Amino acid sequence: MIGQGAKMQELYQERILELARSSKHSKPIDNPTHRAEKNNPICGDKVIINATIKDNLVYDAHLIVRGCALCEAGAGIWKETAVGREINKLNLLRDDLDNFLKNNKSLSNQEFACFEPVKKIRNRIDCVMLCFEAATEFNAISSD
Fold first, then answer.
1. What burial letters (b/e) apply to 17-42, b meaning 16+ CB within 10 Å?
2. Backbone angles phi, psi at 36, to 5 degrees
3. pLDDT-based confidence at 144, cuts 50/70/90?
4. How many domains are there within the chain?
5. Which residue range(s) make up the domain with 52?
6. pLDDT of 62-75, one tens digit each?
7. In 3D, which of 132, 131, 106 has the Cα closest to residue 119?
8. CA-CA distance, 125 to 2, in Å (whole number)?
9. Helix (H, G, I), strand (E, B) or coil at 87
10. Can you give the pTM of this predicted structure?
């Protein structure tokens, strides 16, 4: 049986912590065109994404994350994988990660493999997925 310390070390491996740090150091962007916001009422995590989206392509994004390290890491990997992609491909990324974590499906994006230990802690999956879920609800920002 794995001890609690070993489980935590497996869960909070260096790649997860690196992604969490990257989301905390997200720099504001000038003139974002879209915004998305999502809360997890169970644990209190909150994600805000300000993005520049033109011609269906995510050019840049700024993250504001209030949450645990897994929420921050999920936001960090979202930004890494979303910037430079077409907005309609973001749902495929979300589905890939969701199916990997919840249904033990294989990954098409191996960058998500660092979240393997989260599969064992079902109530933490929503923390990782919060930014991906927020991105399905982008709203255009009025320029008024």
1. eebbebbeebeeeeebbbbbebebee
2. -140, 145
3. low
4. 1
5. 4-140
6. 999 999 999 999 99
7. 106
8. 20
9. helix
10. 0.88
